[in-house]
Amino acid sequence: MVSEKSETVTRSDIAVSIPITLKEALQSKSKFKEGVYIAGGTLMQLDWEANEIMTKHIVSLKNLSELKGVEVVKEGQKRFVKIGALTTINECLNHTLTAMYCPLFVSACHSIAAPAVRNLATVGGNVASRIGDSLPALLVLDAEITCLMNGKKMTKKISDWLNDKQNSSFLLIDIRIPFPEEQVSYFYKKVGRREAFTPAVVSVSGMWRFEDEELLDVRLAVGGGSHYPVRLYQVEELLKTDSLKFSSELVYSEILNEFNSYSDPFLSDQYRKKVAANIIISKLKKQFI
């Protein structure tokens, strides 16, 4: 669940450690400085097929039962659904707790890869990649992650963790999604180049909360493809100032201004920006613009 590159190697050159405890996993990673943690291994398979540089040492986490499962935890007055990093995407889709308390996250999980891949791919791998399709939804949900970094266990807002790109060596322990707020509306939308399984053009998620026709809170996030997911804070502030007085044209323009995209041989950055803006405006128009 960590990307660290070394010289090109063949598959026969790769040494695999399979620890059965978290302590053993940390020791294996410490022994092989250039090694990487993997869980389902689906992202590494894609990297291999794309001729990306591979490592000589892999630390497989598949036997660490302590990093699997879904449960409710309470911290102070807050309750969270805690999802172990090695929980598969398919398990997230079918678990009673995620279905009951995390419907937006479940919607995002439905968009990840093909069904066969979801049986192997883990939520930890999707998050740790920093470009996973679940991340826009997790940003909107104000989720947290627990990870081991520099030998210390810490819990951070997922937004803060995404902004901290300096330390790429970490072991993701779990993802914590707060219990849903009352009177909140959510959406998640992933757009690909075609109906078949392809990387996203963009993935967009949002939430808003009204009380007596007053907008109390709004969160918007964009990611997908090779985008590092981001919250659109300026657009959120524009809407919260007085949502009923702003035109869709002004909000659309602010989305294009704030969302930094990229071009590739298939699509331009401007096209991706406009797709994201059109999705958000369409959803907001149904509510209050």
TrEMBL record:
Keywords: FAD, Flavoprotein, Oxidoreductase. One of its GO terms (molecular function) is oxidoreductase activity. SMART domains: CO_deh_flav_C (SM01092). Coiled coil: none annotated. It comes from the Bacteria. InterPro entries: CO_DH_flav_C, CO_DH_flav_C_dom_sf, Diverse_Substr_Oxidored, FAD-bd_PCMH, FAD-bd_PCMH-like_sf, FAD-bd_PCMH_sub2, Mopterin_DH_FAD-bd. Residues 9-182 form the FAD-binding PCMH-type domain. PROSITE patterns: FAD_PCMH (PS51387). SUPFAM superfamilies: CO dehydrogenase flavoprotein C-terminal domain-like, FAD-binding/transporter-associated domain-like. This is Xanthine dehydrogenase. It comes from Metabacillus litoralis.
